[in-house]
Amino acid sequence: MRLGHVGISVGHLQRSISFYRTHLGLKLHKKYVFRDKGMTIALLKKGNIALELFEFKKRKPLPQYRKTLDDDLRTLGVKHFSLETKNITAIFNKFKKSGVRFATDLRVFADGRRYFFIKDPDGILIEIMGK
């Protein structure tokens, strides 16, 4: 087995599609509209990475207690998704220059790999990990 995709509820679908395209290189693969449920789904892909973005007409914002990494990790449930890169320093600098919101600075994990966290436009945490 392998991970098929990661599903994320977002506040504004077009804004999120633009973010993931611009900063992570994902492209819109398919879009589905479910009018009876007030929901639109966009499937984004890049290589073996797939994100499924959900936009609901009636949505709830990310709770305040889940907006920081340390607080969110203490709450049960999915916390973030992680992408790996061979050149962590170059990606870190690219995101700094582009104005992406950071949740952490560049850190060193217990196994010696470097990593950092960014946030998408809705505050969803994304980990970038060096290989």
Overall pLDDT confidence: 93
Q: SS-based structural class?
A: alpha+beta
Radius of gyration: 15 Å
Number of separate strands: 9
What is the number of helices? 3
Distance between the termini: 22 Å
What CATH architecture of the largest domain do you see? Roll
Order of helices and strands: EHEEEHEHEEEE
Given as residue ranges, the uncertain stretches (5+ residues, pLDDT < 50) are none
Question: Which terms would index this structure?
Answer:
2,3-Dihydroxybiphenyl 1,2-Dioxygenase, domain 1, 2 domains, 131 residues, globular, alpha+beta, 21% helix, single chain, 38% strand
Would you kindly provide a written description of the structure presented here, covering whatever features stand out?
The chain is α+β, with helices and mostly antiparallel strands and 131 residues long. The protein folds into two domains: 1-58, 2,3-Dihydroxybiphenyl 1,2-Dioxygenase, domain 1 (Roll), CATH 3.10.180; 66-131, 2,3-Dihydroxybiphenyl 1,2-Dioxygenase, domain 1, CATH 3.10.180. The protein contains three helices and nine strands, in the order βαβββαβαββββ. It has helices spanning 13-24, 69-73, 88-98; strands at 6-10, 27-34, 39-46, 49-56, 81-85, 101-102, 107-108, 114-119, 125-130. The strands form two sheets. Strands 5, 6, 7, 8 and 9 form a five-stranded mixed beta sheet that branches. The chain starts with 5 loop residues before the first strand and ends with a strand.
Briefly say what this structure is.
With 131 residues, the protein is α+β, with helices and mostly antiparallel strands. It has helices at residues 13-24, 69-73, 88-98, and strands at 6-10, 27-34, 39-46, 49-56, 81-85, 101-102, 107-108, 114-119, 125-130. The mean pLDDT is 93.
